[in-house]
Specification:
This protein is an all-alpha fold. It is built from six helices and no strands. The chain is globular, with a radius of gyration of 18 Å.
Length: 160
């Protein structure tokens, strides 16, 4: 997987960077501290976030057996993929590493994608209250893109 940065480096190939490329690189590096801080915050929040997510899902959706402790833990751990895409500033990475995987996996397992999306939306609410403002603002666009992608996955068809 090539990111925008590796594409710029390969395209430049022994020439000076263009003004556009330099501007893109400098904008990325200017926000790098925020992206790194986001990773620290997520790592610190993981243990309590998984527990709280399971509690919230059980409270809000008591009739959904999908919402187990292991699922809550998996969803929280999947934030690592979102964080990696944010760190790289490349949503293609999130699509390749996680969203496309979910799009194939959920229907194959017979899991309703909107139930997973609902769980991620609860997780979103929890994240908004636990991350600093700058970390959340860096994280939110990629997280929202992932949850939106879950809305377009077709529901599994039941064999009759």
């Amino acid at each position: 997987m090539n990111t925008w940065l590796t594409d710029i480096i390969r395209r430049t190939n022994e020439r000076a960077f263009s003004e556009t490329d330099l501007a893109r690189i400098m904008a990325y590096y200017a926000r790098l501290p925020i992206r790194l801080k986001l990773g620290e915050e997520l790592e610190k929040q993981e243990p309590t976030l998984a527990r709280k997510l399971h509690e919230e899902l059980a409270r809000r959706f008591p009739d959904r057996p999908l919402y187990t402790r292991p699922l809550a833990q998996d969803l929280v751990e999947s934030l690592r993929h979102v964080n990696l895409a944010v760190l790289a500033d490349d949503t293609k990475l999130l699509k390749l590493r996680w969203t496309d995987h979910l799009a194939r996996l959920l229907p194959a397992l017979g899991v309703e994608p909107l139930e997973v999306r609902d769980a991620y939306l609860v997780l979103r609410e929890l994240l908004e209250t636990r991350l600093t403002g700058s970390a959340w603002e860096a994280f939110r666009p990629a997280f929202d893109e992932m949850t939106e992608a879950l809305s377009t996955i077709p529901a599994p068809t039941l064999a009759v």
